[in-house]
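Let's sit down with a protein and look at its sequence and fold side by side. Once you have written the record down, we can walk along the chain together.
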Amino acid sequence: MRFPLIVLVVFAHSLSFGNIEISPTFDGWNIYHFVSEMISHNLARLAVCWFYVISGYFFFRNLNDGDFCFKWVAGKWIKRIWSLLIPYLIWNLLAVCIPALKAALFNGMGIGTDNSMPDTNLLFCLWRGPADFPLYFMRDLMVMSLVAPLAYLLFKRFRWLSLALLLCLYASPLNPELPAMRAIFYFFLGVWLGTWKVNMLAICRKTRWSAAVLAVVLLLIASYFNASPYHEWMLRAFYPFGMITFMNICDRLLDNEVIHARLIKLSSAVFFIYASHEILILGWTKGAFLRVFGDGLTGSWISFFGVPTVVLLVCLGLYWLLNRIIPRTLAFACGGRK
């Protein structure tokens, strides 16, 4: 599932931030806004939800009863220093240094005045931003990982009550903007599922048809209510059914051995795409498409599908090149992921 999910992430970031209100008309621009918002600002949000669930699920998935102790927890935390903290620092540093170097080179060569210097405030670069924006997921994941052992103890002692509390939190009016809610709810939902070794795929298979119908209907409704006070609430209703449907689609794709093999091979580049695509690559690609195709309706359609495609190809090409030249350095920067 990891490569299809990162494709959604790139689509989410390729469209300008901020939701656009949808009008009940069928003119060309309104259709474009409806489709682009539906994919990038509604459907694509499933990626973050699934990545949180997967991270929480495998935190305790292989823990046997009686093995939980401080030594085991400390081992998990140490692994996350290498897989999360160090890559987080490396890529945020690159997100500051590479644009600064580009600006210095452009200004020095007289290509043009480049004033797009990144914010070098340490608090912004490493926490509030962060400098490499998509890494907010890793920042929140590190915080959730520190609290995960306490959640495990709670889930083991109060199995169904803890799940009910999670569902109540999700349905509450707290944090209607949702980013932190997604981190808390979906990571700890993954922890709950992993703690009790729930077979997620079996559940998804049993509910595939009803979930698919609800996912399509709720996605259309959420897209229609884009930028309205009801938008986030519609998304909360859509996420569970959309996630189930997404897993079932991937399940069917993997029945094809060729697709299965290619997705497994492509999954090795997922972290690199995630960490690198916002560092100049996405911005330059969007700028190139804007210059070539313009900002009219036709150009917007071409850019909407073309920019993510080119970004993914560039990232895959860079990953292949770096993996041949400096494989160990690349693996280290990607948290040991090969």
Observations:
- The chain has a mean pLDDT of 88.
- The longest helix spans residues 70-109.
- The chain is about 75% helix and 0% strand.
- The radius of gyration is 21 Å.
